[in-house]
Amino acid sequence: MENTVIKIENLVKRYGELIALDHLNLEIREGEVFGLLGPNGSGKTTTINCLLSLLAYDKGSIEIFGKPMTPTAYDIKQQIGIIMQDVAVFDELTVYENIDYFCGLYIPDKAKRKQYVEDAIRFVGLEDFIKFRPKKLSGGLLRRLNIACGIAHKPRLIILDEPTVAVDPQSRNKILEGIEELNRSGATIIYTSHYMEEVEQICTRIAIMDKGKKIAEGTKEELKRMIKNTETVSIEILELPEQVHEAIGKLPHVYNTEYSEGKLTVFCSGGKHNLIRILDVLQKNDLIFGRVYTELPTLNDVFLEITGKALRDKEG
């Protein structure tokens, strides 16, 4: 069984009358890429700030690597890398000097630090930009520099808060590949994002927060099994008699149907042969149809059903 890296128990954080965290419990195991999702005001940012002891909380406990996390727990903090949404580098320093500075906060040995800095530069693919100052970098390259500064000291736990916001597809892919490589090399990762496809791609386990509470947790497959919709079948069909439409709506596992502008959409909950049953009804009624496709639920479907909110609205 994996070791527990983070254990949060009954965490409560209030801002006056507002309860930002409402008895939050969270456990993250060694080697995970743990996705932390939530809409505006869900408590993700507050959770991370409490986790890092940047914010005092009212009740509960936080342990990292089996030890209580406190503002002066420097032995724990040395093993954590943080890449926040807002890029935090020095405009006066070059790419190399920025990474060297942040690495130097943790690694005093010059020879070791030089190797670590070179490893970080190579890892994010900034070899050709080491003498550039941040203002000369594109948005994607600036994000890569931000990541290099956060991981140069080779931390065991890495927290990434929206690392791919407003970057080009090439840089996004480079960043995601880098996160997976960091994980393979032994780092445990907490990942927050408003891009569901990223979370589906890299996260091994996911928690969804809303109003300061954890409302769902599991692998992406486990989360998808929690919702009503398990399959959506779409069929292009020019004519659909009302009695046929009704017959399809009465099939096993079908809970809703829509027919509009020559397209039939059938929403199913459970069942393994939904498409076969639907096509069988159409064929028995000698109806001609065109393109047929079936979709399994996405994480976005899960998020919308569980929270009733879209994820793309950014949290402050």
Structure description:
- With 316 residues, this protein is an alpha/beta fold.
- It folds into 2 domains: 4-224, P-loop containing nucleotide triphosphate hydrolases (Rossmann fold), CATH 3.40.50.300; 231-296, Alpha-Beta Plaits (2-Layer Sandwich).
- Helices cover 34% and strands 27% of the residues.
- The chain has 11 helices and 14 strands.
- A 6-stranded mixed β-sheet has the order 6-7-8-3-9-10, sandwiched between helices.
- A hairpin with a 2-residue loop joins β4 (59-64) and β5 (67-68).
- It is elongated.
- Mean pLDDT is 92; it is low at 312-316.
Secondary-structure blueprint:
Blueprint: E1 4-15, E2 18-29, E3 33-37, H1 44-51, E4 59-64, E5 67-68, H2 74-77, E6 80-83, H3 95-104, H4 110-124, H5 139-151, E7 157-161, H6 169-184, E8 188-192, H7 196-202, E9 205-210, E10 213-218, H8 220-224, E11 231-236, H9 242-249, E12 254-260, E13 263-268, H10 274-284, E14 292-295, H11 299-307
Parallel strand pairs: 3-8, 3-9, 6-7, 7-8
Antiparallel strand pairs: 1-2, 1-4, 4-5, 9-10, 11-13, 11-14, 12-13
Helix pairs in contact: 3-4, 3-5, 4-5, 5-6
Short description:
The protein has helices at residues 44-51, 74-77, 95-104, 110-124, 139-151, 169-184, 196-202, 220-224, 242-249, 274-284, 299-307, and strands spanning 4-15, 18-29, 33-37, 59-64, 67-68, 80-83, 157-161, 188-192, 205-210, 213-218, 231-236, 254-260, 263-268, 292-295. By secondary structure, it is of the alpha/beta class. The protein folds into two domains: 4-224, P-loop containing nucleotide triphosphate hydrolases (Rossmann fold), CATH 3.40.50; 231-296, Alpha-Beta Plaits, CATH 3.30.70.100.
